[in-house]
Structures are given as C-alpha cells and as structure tokens.
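Exam prep: given the inputs below (a chain plus fe (ii) ion), describe the expected output before reading on.
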Amino acid sequence: MDLFNNDEVNLFGQGKNLLPFDGEALIYPYFFKEDVFARLVEETPWKQDKMKIYGREVEFPRLTAWYGDSDEVYIYSGVVNVPVPFSSLLNAIKQSAEQQCGYRFNTALLNYYRDGNDSMGWHSDDESELGSNPVIASVSFGASRVFRFKHKIQKDAKVSVELHNGDLLIMRGATQHHWLHQVPKTAKKPGPRINITFRLIG
Ligand SMILES: O=C(O)CCC(=O)C(=O)O
Ligand SMILES: [Fe+2]
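Solution:
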C-alpha cells in the first residue's frame, strides 16, 4: 500500500545519529507524509494501565495499546500486555518503517499523550524478550513533544530532540544498554500526541 508516498525514503540516507557515542538513534524528520493522527485516535482500543507503587494503584500518565502478530504476551513496566492483531493502517506504517530500517517487527506499542501532563519516565527498552541490541522504530503523530536521552554512567551526556508529526526515530546498536530516554511533562500546553514503537520480540 502506497499510503505514505515515501519516494524520499533514501533522501535522508542513513539518518542523522543523535547520540555522540555508545549507540545509534537515527532521526528521519517528517518521514511519514500522511496525517493519520485522527484515524489512530479513533481506531485504537486505548487502555488506561495502572501500576502498583508501594501497594497503591497509580494510573499511567498516558493511554496505551499493544499490537502484535503473535499471541505472545509481553510484560512492559510490570503490565502484562495481550496484543491485538495489526490493523491495516498500522501494518502500512510498520511496512514503511521496516523498509527504512531493513529490519522486521512483530509488535507495536502505542502511547497516547493526551496533553502536557502525560509523559513517559526515564527507562531503557531492555526487556529480555527484545534481545541484546534491539532495533526499535519510533514513529510520532500529532503534537510535537521533547524526547530526551541521558547516558547511564556519564551524567553530563544528554541529548534532547523535538519529535514532530511524522518523524521516524530508529534506536539500535548498544543504545538501550547505555542510554535512558523519556518524554517529559511540559507546561507548554501541547496538543495530543501518539507515539508508536515497533519492536521484534520472541
Ligand atoms: O513517546 C515516545 O516518543 C517514546 C515512547 C517510548 O519510549 C516507549 O514506548 O518505550
Ligand atoms: Fe522507550
């Protein structure tokens, strides 16, 4: 399906590596041309996950959905996720990302940041199901939000980038071993944003 009209796929070549060392985070600005934000909001079976902190239930500061083409269960931030099958829209996005990465994915985690109070805390995507040096393709739609990296050991090594509607970010190599990433809360009153991370598990 030529949904995204990505004739320029190779214009950006390898993409620019945002990380100075210990990993690769390749950015492809405005990779996806089609504005699918509203469709994704509508079509996705959003869930409000909760986590237990010191015995107290706390809602995640975002909504989530988990897609996969196996019925493999994936544990993320202590939450057991049973995937729903890929929609045709998600399949089309996945295929474009796969083409650019030269890599295959079988799952997608969707995060819906409704406003500036929604966020994602510092973490690495280093679950064992992902293997040792996972390739993760992150695609953003809707409002722009800041996305930050910080090195686990070298505390002064930090990278900040604004992810826009249609941006593709590929994390690969040793990135998850050495770097944490986050989407901080902001008082700037951004509109809603959806991020999709494609992963290969199992
Ligand atoms: O929303 C983003 O840009 C990042 C999402 C993320 O880090 C994740 O799903 O693991
Ligand atoms: Fe992540």
